[in-house]
Specification:
Elements (H helix, E strand, L loop, with lengths): L1 H12 L1 E8 L2 E8 L16 E6 L7 E6 L5 H7 L2 E4 L11 E4 L25 E7 L7 E2 L14 E7 L14 H4 L22 H11 L16 H12 L5 H12 L1 H5 L10 H13 L12 H7 L22 H13 L6 H8 L23 H14 L3 H14 L17 H13 L3 H14 L17 H11 L41 H9 L21 H14 L3 H12 L10 H5 L8 H13 L12 H8 L24 H13 L7 H9 L19 H12 L4 H16 L7 E3 L2 E3 H11 L3 H17 L19 H10 L101 H8 L5
Parallel strand pairs: 3-9
Antiparallel strand pairs: 1-2, 2-5, 3-4, 5-6, 7-8, 7-9, 10-11
Helix pairs in contact: 4-16, 5-6, 5-8, 5-16, 8-9, 8-10, 10-11, 10-12, 12-13, 12-14, 14-15, 14-16, 17-18, 17-29, 18-19, 18-21, 18-29, 21-22, 21-23, 23-25, 25-26, 25-27, 27-28, 27-29
């Protein structure tokens, strides 16, 4: 114990600072030197934690270290023998470089030749943070930054250099947690993720082919045959269902319902059904909102349960747990899925049987083999088995092993071969593998598979069986369409939110002065939330939030997030006045920095996100954004609009119409809102056009600029808020598509997925976005507010996410408080008339004893944030906070030490007000445009 204490003292004493001069200004680059690490064998499954850093991008290997008594992930990194360096913009709040004595004499990477570490690094090249608990076989993107994460005995952390999106769905470690745990060895290189350009399947063209090829618009009939192919008819129905309800789908479904006996009960109505056929019809019933217990005169779910084999050696049974007459693994997997989607827990024997069809390499065989029979990998069976077992739960090891197989089986072009050792792609195998990878969170690999599929789409819209096929076929087309629609038989549905009747009275034209203090079961307790945000232990001197760890350095992005929350609720206008005055009057933090040391206005590092975020606050509280803190933020935004893409090594401009140093949709959207609110529609025309072009066909927006191909709830919500101010028909249509997409992502408990998992930040942003059309999405809004209420703690603060580390998180709380009001950032307004200047209780800032270690921000977020997906206000990039967007390189990415819950891209997250009045948001935004209708 004494030795450990000594090492900690030495670690603290080893903090060094170096001054970097740039552009006539200076920035302090804080470096933490390594200390004597515990030997790796001193960490065990019940003692200490291990951290692994992958120096592969710099020509090195994976280096491991151990700390027997870690208190934070940040300390684990240093106590394990690694050194780090922060950025000039954020100090030690952002890990920009990591070094280790065994690699190049401890040289920290990346070197200054490739990254100056003045601003937060670009989204394509930074250190992301991954974690795994003792019972986990795969990495999770950290919900918290390294300084906020509390490792437990047996935990393992990993740091990987490269690119990821705001949700941390890309850029995973190429080694598994088990390979670097205590007792494990240094991993070799894992299978690389395919590096292919993003591309999408043309779903409209594919489903048009399906409709055109149907006989009488209701069934599939093979060439030369005169009887229906029921199997392929179900495939046609699944494909059509990806486009929602339609007359064509209804007609096919009615045909199959009328022919249920012919397809699934060939042996007679009272006999055992063909399990595969019964499962496929039951799934169709679930997908189309029919009743699988009464489809075609049969209880399909009940018949599947009733006809589970008690043992092998019987008619239609190979082994115990088989669905009778299934014969193949796909039938067994579909049977499990059909029961789950029918609301029935599958008999344990059926799921166990499915797990026993896994081969030694992690794949699944295509046939229901018996003990000792040859097990040969089949990509179709593997994909379906993964979907079923993942949905069933409780078989993590089996699923993880299958995931590893899929990773290794994927070809460099994104395709999957139809058989072991194959070198060309199979459309069906690739389609099912893509569906499975997506539900497992392997977004890069799933997207690569879809990209390959898009290249196999034929001119008529359909797909053939194999790579380079010339003729379209139903089976391949159906599977490819589901993969291209980012769905699967585990989740496909035509269900849309019920549209409630419009209220009988016209909603008010402006939000109420103060939203309800408590949701009364309908939402969070906003007064309690505001009390948490304004507590003296958090709001330093009543002026700003600091980066933590006893620091007096202001987190200006987070401070503005807090101001947005106070403005949205109206529950403490005096506290809001104190923050605004501090920012507007050149108030200095404990290091002598003002808000414009953060915005970088007047320097070549000034960027759209921080400028826009600050300007919108000024606009919201009635201050002049053309003279805020002595600077004209609107003129600076006009200057920050890019005329074209910059060339390496300059990373300031992504494209024409983007903003300088605004690498996220969050940052971009905030800047657009600031310009439009200032009446600068002309200056914003190119940025608006660029934002429109970022939208996917699905209606979603990506997290980053330039687009990475991902789809992000948080970014889609903030983009919708920005475009809602534009007012032309194209923008209005884009908003409608965005809201529809967001509504489809709501989870069963009312939450929404974000970088932190079931994320508080994403739910808050979803409320804000959906509140742009309250009559249409009233039910979803209510569910999300109920979810947020469930995440509020007794102290008034909020968790980062539904699962993971518990406890109130400041950034998550700013997002939850403001977002749950439903007020759009684009129309947020709070009149401070009648408030008084707030006295400074302590003009000489001192560290707070209760402060936590500073959060590390992610790329693009100029201010620290515990995590992020681009600045999730509480959890990630969508989970980004309005605050995470700002700073030199605004926007946020994935966790780099700052919590996933907080990295955010933007200020976007908390803005909208009162769900009850959000139906008027569009009317208010029209008014901002001069009363256009």
């Amino acid at each position: 114990m004494d030795r450990d204490k000594g090492r900690r003292f030495a670690g603290l004493a080893a903090l060094l600072s170096a001054v970097l001069l740039f552009g006539g200004t200076s920035a302090v680059l804080v470096t933490a030197a390594p200390v004597l690490a515990d030997p790796i064998d001193r960490c065990t499954a019940s003692r200490g934690a291990v951290v692994a850093v992958d120096f592969g991008p710099f020509g090195g290997t994976v280096e491991r270290g151990c700390d027997t008594t870690p208190t934070t992930g940040y300390e684990l990194l240093h106590e394990a023998g690694f050194s780090t360096a922060g950025t000039g913009h954020d100090g030690d709040a952002f890990i920009c470089r990591i070094g280790h004595g065994s690699f190049h004499s401890g040289t920290p990477y990346p070197t200054p030749a490739t990254e100056d570490c003045v601003l937060t690094p670009q989204a394509t090249a930074y250190w992301s943070y991954w974690v795994a608990s003792p019972d986990e076989e795969d990495w999770k993107y950290s919900q918290y930054g390294a300084m906020d994460r509390k490792p437990k005995a047996g935990d393992v952390d990993a740091w990987v250099f490269g690119g990821t999106d705001v949700g941390g769905t890309t850029g995973r470690p190429t080694f598994t947690p088990d390979e670097v745990r205590a007792g494990g060895g240094t991993p070799g290189p894992g299978p690389e993720e395919p590096n292919v350009p993003p591309a999408e399947v043309d779903l409209a063209k594919a489903t048009a082919w399906v409709r055109a090829e149907l006989t009488d618009g209701e069934r599939v009939v093979d060439e030369g045959a005169d009887t229906p192919n029921y199997f392929l008819t179900t495939e046609a129905a699944y494909a059509l269902a990806t486009r929602g309800k339609s007359r064509a789908l209804n007609k096919v479904t009615a045909f199959l319902r009328a022919h249920t006996d012919a397809y699934a009960y060939a042996a007679g109505r009272d006999g055992a059904p063909d399990a595969t056929a019964a499962a496929r019809l039951a799934l169709l019933a679930a997908v189309t909102e029919n009743n699988p217990r009464d489809f075609g005169g049969h209880d399909l779910v009940g018949d599947l349960v009733h006809h589970v084999c008690p043992a092998g050696g019987q008619a239609g049974c190979t082994a115990e747990g088989d669905f009778r007459n299934a014969s193949y693994t796909d039938g067994q997997a579909l049977g499990v899925l059909a029961l789950l989607r029918g609301g029935v827990r599958p008999p344990a024997a059926t799921v166990t049987r499915l797990t026993r069809l896994q081969c030694r390499d992690g794949s699944f065989t295509s046939v229901l083999i018996g003990p000792g029979e040859n097990c040969e990998a089949d990509p179709l069976a593997t994909g379906l088995a993964v979907l079923a077992l993942h949905q069933a739960g409780g078989h993590r090891a089996v699923v993880a092993k299958a995931r590893d197989h899929l990773r290794k089986a994927q070809l460099s072009n994104g395709a999957f071969p139809g058989y072991t050792g194959g070198t060309t792609g199979s459309v069906i195998g690739t389609g099912y593998a893509a569906q499975a990878l997506r539900v497992l969170g392997e977004k890069v690999r799933a997207d690569a598979a879809v990209s390959w599929l898009s290249g196999q789409q034929l001119t008529d819209g359909g797909f053939g069986f194999e790579e380079g096929a010339a003729d379209s076929v139903f089976y391949a087309t159906g599977v490819a369409v589901l993969a291209g629609a980012d769905t699967s038989l585990a989740s496909l549905t035509t269900k849309k939110p019920d549209r409630p009747q419009p209220p009988g009275t016209t909603p008010p034209a402006s939000p109420p002065a103060s939203p309800p203090a408590s949701g009364n079961g309908r939402g969070p307790d906003l007064k309690k939330g505001v009390a948490y945000l304004t507590d003296a232990a958090r709001l330093r001197r009543g002026r700003y939030y600091d980066i933590g760890a006893g620091s007096t350095r202001a987190d200006f992005g987070l401070t503005i997030d807090g101001a947005y929350a106070l403005a949205a609720t109206g529950h403490d206008d005096d506290a809001l006045r104190g923050i605004v005055d501090f920012l507007d009057q050149g108030g200095e933090d404990g290091e002598g920095r003002t808000v414009h040391d953060w915005t970088k206005v007047g320097t070549r590092y000034a960027g759209g996100g921080s400028l826009g975020k600050t300007a919108v606050l000024a606009q919201a509280v009635g201050r002049d954004p053309r003279d805020f803190g002595g600077q004209d933020l609107i003129a600076a935004l006009a200057t920050a609009v890019c005329r074209g893409p910059s060339t390496a090594p300059d990373r300031s401009c992504a494209a024409k119409g983007a903003y300088r140093y605004a690498p996220s949709v969050f940052a971009h959207a905030l800047a657009v809102m600031a310009q439009i609110r200032a009446g600068e529609e002309g200056a914003a025309s190119d940025p608006v056009a660029y934002l429109k072009n970022l939208q996917h066909a699905s209606g979603a927006f990506p997290s980053l600029v330039p687009a990475t191909g991902d789809s992000d709830v948080d970014s889609t919500a903030i983009a919708a808020m920005a475009l809602d101010l534009v007012g032309d028909d194209e923008a209005d249509a884009a908003v409608e598509r965005a809201l529809r997409w967001i509504s489809t992502k709501q989870l069963d408990d009312g939450g929404f997925p974000g970088a932190a998992g079931n994320s508080v930040n994403s739910a808050a942003l979803a409320v804000q976005g959906l509140s742009l059309d309250t009559p249409e999405y009233e039910r979803q809004i209510a569910g999300a507010r109920k979810f947020l209420a469930a995440q509020q703690n007794p102290d008034g603060g909020f968790n980062v996410a539904e699962d993971g580390q518990r406890g109130s998180d400041l950034r998550a709380s700013t997002q939850a408080v403001g977002g749950s009001t439903g007020i759009s950032f684009g129309v947020l307004t709070r009149d401070l008339t009648g408030t008084r200047p707030q006295p400074d209780p302590d003009p000489t800032p001192t560290p707070s004893a209760s402060a936590s270690t500073p959060a590390i921000v992610t790329p693009g977020d100029a201010g620290p944030s515990p995590a992020g997906t681009g600045g999730e206000g509480a959890a990630g990039a969508g989970d980004r906070g309005a605050g995470a967007s700002g700073g030199g390189a605004q926007g946020g990415l994935a966790s780099t030490g700052g919590g996933v819950a907080v990295l955010a891209a933007g200020a976007a997250t908390l803005v909208l007000a009162g769900c009850a009045v959000t139906a008027a948001v569009r009317h208010r935004s029209r008014a901002l445009r001069g009363g256009q209708s």
